[in-house]
Amino acid sequence: MNRQQYIELVQEMIEHDRRYYDENRPTISDYEYDQKRLALEAYEKAHPEHILPASPAQRVAEGPTSGFVQKAHLVPMMSLANTYSEEEIADFIKRVHKLLEKKEIPFCAELKMDGTAISLLYEKGKLVHALTRGNGKIGDDVTANIRTIKSIPLTIDIKETVEIRGEIYMSLSVFKALNREREEEGLEPFANPRNAAAGSLKLLDPREVAKRKLNLVAYGVEGAGSLTSQYEVHHQLKKWGFPIGSKEHLAYCETFDEIVHFAKKIEKERPHLPFEIDGIVIKVDDIKAHAVLGATGKVPRFAIAYKFAPEQAHTRIHEITVQVGRSGVLTPVAELEPVLLAGSTISRATLHNQEEVARKDIRIGDLVVIEKGGDVIPKVVSVDLSKRPPHTHPWKMPQHCPICKSDVIHREGEVAVRCANPRCAGQRVKRLTYFASKHAMDIEHLGERVAEQLVEKGLVSRISEVYLLDEEKLAQLEGFKEKAIRNLLTSINASRQCPFSRFIMGLGIKSVGTETAELLAEEARDVNTLLHMKEEELLGINGIGEKTAKEIWEALHDPDLREEIRLLLAHGVTPQKLKPKLTGHPFSGKTFVLTGALQHYSRDEAAALIKERGGSVSGSVSKKTDYVLVGEDPGSKYVKAKELGVNILSESQFRQMLD
Ligand code: IVH
Q: Rounded to two decimals, what is the model's pTM?
């Protein structure tokens, strides 16, 4: 790799990180990512003088996200070094032998669950909070969401303060059902169960999280002095009532051969497991030895991950079709000879964009390798050129939209090719489906197939016309008899009184997903205020970054969108107004820290009351804290507040101040 290639790789990796962390929608497999990352690290090691500060290898990935209170872990959460070969496992064992100056060292091998890490803090046996990994030191407090997972015990039998470590994951069956639902509603499906789990944990409404049926597998305990072996840890976790992996998925290994045997057994089982794993984790069983071994950077020396190569299959492309998205973006799709891959029959694979097709020189008729790390829509990894049939041609993006036949455009600086015709039926169908989906206006019975007919028959050309549909018009739809007509009209009518955040979702503004819509609704509280918000005001919302603020502001000033909003309101859509924020309240502009158990409210409820009154809630006490609200059994924050002389509020004082 030369310097120029290094610079390009840094840019590429920044983009991959953005897709992964911000959009929860990676476009390359973990395996490919890791390979690129290794190349990046190798170059930086060899040429430290060329290191770009923005290089993803220079920073801790995945910072805490806003929208949640951030809190510190008692013991930092590290990540694992990845290995891909048996030689690397052997190297790891040798290193451990050398450092511990001993030849006989037992290991504990476990599944590497492909989900998102969690740390559960128990004080005096009671669950206090649940934090995501965040940057390893500070994570997001997702306790309310974690409480929706029934298998997590709220109390355990131990006096010491402990942090239980584990993985939150989504089983494959739940994942598939969720994505089916999302697609029917016109929402972007999640790329894989891991992103679905991580995305679900970050939802702001715990009731929505409950519907996602998340699971936990516990694999670690920090702070319990009596536990001396990793094998014992699993045993104890089980005794406390935590879900741990099955017996067969845990191995006590005394030799390299035993580890490899376990790895092979698991790799064979992998396609039949009801959840996703991406390898195994090998840990030194003796916990006292962990401290002796220490860590290098962000990874401990007592454990490694041995990752499996992604599952792949070979098949032929019999056609390349082009899909039109909501905003007109054209996406090439490979239509495949159906093939079995990771437990499901695959007949389509996304080709992302024309650059990707050109880079891999993918042609109709090619025999290709497809891969699916649990991704809903698998991808084409490579072409087997030796099996290419004669007389094929490089594939080209059509010059006309496959649906409306108008010219396509390629905006400068963009990879995407678009159909620029806002009246394109393909776009209209996608927009309408999105508008009616559960996360937007929630119009039951208006899925993609009905949307297609409504557009095709000219009954709905812009979304607000949904509210002009009547019996006579709906009778024109195929198979629409009295009952279907009544059902659809009832749900259309019901949607007129929608929550404000879902109305915002329905507008289909790029970069506004459920969470951003909620933040906007919370801040603006009614349509009129939203339409008059300045870009700085949007940027001032905690959780909305510069790029998003700009995009939202521009979208809200698009005359077409403004007209659409006017029509929606004129046709009787009345998004529910949120009560105006109380101004001039003594809490306004003040920072609160909560500690101890409150009698009348959960922490989230108390936080909501404070926020409604213009205050904010922070996770730790500092000189900047205005009030510490103290419940029963307060923790160290109470002590710190007294030390710093911060105002202390009892629950009854707090209640008096509320109104
Ligand atoms: S041990 C320092 N054990 O893998 C030890 N991690 O790549 C860190 N993971 O952040 C964790 N299954 O989210 C451990 N049996 C297992 C695991 C596991 C999945 C995840 C975890 C961690 C990531 C590191």
A: 0.57
